[in-house]
Amino acid sequence: MKRFGPGLLVTAAFIGPGTVTTASVAGARFGFALLWSLLFSVAATIVLQEMAARLGLITRQDLAEALRTTFKRPYMRAAVAVLVVSAIAFGNAAFETGNIIGAALGLAVLTDLPMVLWSLVVAGLAFALLATGVYRIVERVLVALVAVMGLVFLVTVVSIKPDIPALLHGLLWPSVPAGSLLTIIALIGTTVVPYNLFLHSSVAHEKWRGVPAEQALRESRADTFLSISLGGLITLAVVTTAATAFFAGGVEMTSAATMAQQLEPLLGAGAKYFFAAGFLCAGITSAITAPLAAAYATAGILGWPRDLRDRRFQAVWAAIIVTGLVFAVLGTRPVAAIVFAQAANGLLLPIVAVFLLAVMNRADILGEHRNRLTGNILGTVVILTVTGLAAAQLSRIAGIVG
Fold first, then answer.
1. Backbone angles phi, psi at 276, to 5 degrees
2. Distance from the CA of 17 to the CA of which of 94, 285, 341, 393 falls in 20 to 30 A?
3. Virtual CA dihedral for 139, 145, 149, 155, nearest 10 degrees?
């Protein structure tokens, strides 16, 4: 486990209340039919995050720093800076609202104390962890939380004994049931998270500081593959739980908050505790990583030190937490906040991925470690697929298709 870290940060970041909610909706409405999109999401995340980690290890720069030197003209550099700061920072503030509310919902299930109080506790915990300024402490906390979350959902899957043939069919045979396109986009958008590219490139070279490049690359790739696969397995468990509990029984899931109640016939009185623990861990892990990622991205694009103890760095993640807390306390609906953030991700992802590909083909900073043909093809497939799905949904909304 000492060799793990950055990959688990990425997993902790995308396994949040948004993923739990989206995966629950996918399973409840469409059963196992959309599992192929989850498989695509995990593969796409591994491809893009490997590039981001390689960039950090070889250049000792994060994606934001590399973008600042890639575009030479002042107006292009300014445009990229505005895009990164506004989309990543403000988008993460929206995520943080859902993260705090989601973790608070998990705690509220277990006690009669008000949501506002638990929101304050969750925000205070995230603030305290980041205020330590020590990456290893944050890392170890996240590893523990992700492990607990994985155990909760995987135990649930074992308990419900899903239809394995139907699960494998949905995983390996792509289909787009009527009305499922938006859910497919949301499932991809909640896994392939743009700010994780900035986070991973920033943290990778900190983890393997002083380690020979080839060894660091091998260990980083193993970390990325195993950690993100773990995240995909957890999401698969959530979809499976919802599909078995709701879709198979023809039961309607009116909201994510009712999931614990609906699972009681399958798991008994302990169902709400399983779900509460998972939702709590999902919210806390993302409540920590979203502000951290925003701070790394903002510092990199503006040329600030990427130091957890730097006052400007701390001001960014503190602003994200405070903003999320304010909206949580004001009673912002968690589903609305999560959907807004996912929609922003869907629009931002192709742009950030194109920027990443442009940087990864720079021989002047990456040398022999720049992207080869295979990497460029895989990255292009991801971009075209996500862009095509988003365009199809926008066409439907506009009444052009269907």
1. -60, -45
2. 393
3. 110
Residue 1 lies in a domain: no
What are the angstrom distances between the C-alpha of 115 and each of 92, 103, 179, 329, 332? Answer: 21, 10, 33, 8, 12
Cβ–Cβ < 8 Å for 25, 182: no
Query: What does pTM read for this prediction?
Result: 0.86
> Which of 48, 15, 60 is closest to 211 using CA atoms?
60
Domain count along the chain: 1
Residue 254: count of CB within 10 angstroms of its CB: 10
Domain extent at residue 252: 6-398
Q: How far apart (Å, rounded) are the C-alpha atoms in residues 20 and 279? A: 7
> How large is the angle between the packed helices 115-131 and 135-160, nearest 10 degrees?
130
pLDDT at 378: 96
Rounded CA-CA distance 88/38 in Å is 23
Q: What are the pLDDT digits (tens) for 188-229?
A: 888 888 888 888 988 888 888 888 999 999 999 999 999 999
In angstroms, rounded to a whole number, what is the distance separating the alpha carbons of residues 336 and 292?
23
CA 349 to CA 178: how far, in whole Å?
25
Q: Which two tokens stand for residue 316?
A: 């960014």
Q: What sign results for the dihedral spanned by CA atoms 246, 251, 252, 255?
A: negative
pLDDT digit string, tens, across residues 16-53: 777 888 888 899 899 999 999 999 999 999 999 999 99
Contact 201, 53 (CB under 8 A): yes
Provide DSSP, 385-397: HHHHHHHHHHHHH
Q: State the CATH number of the domain containing residue 128.
A: 1.20.1740.10
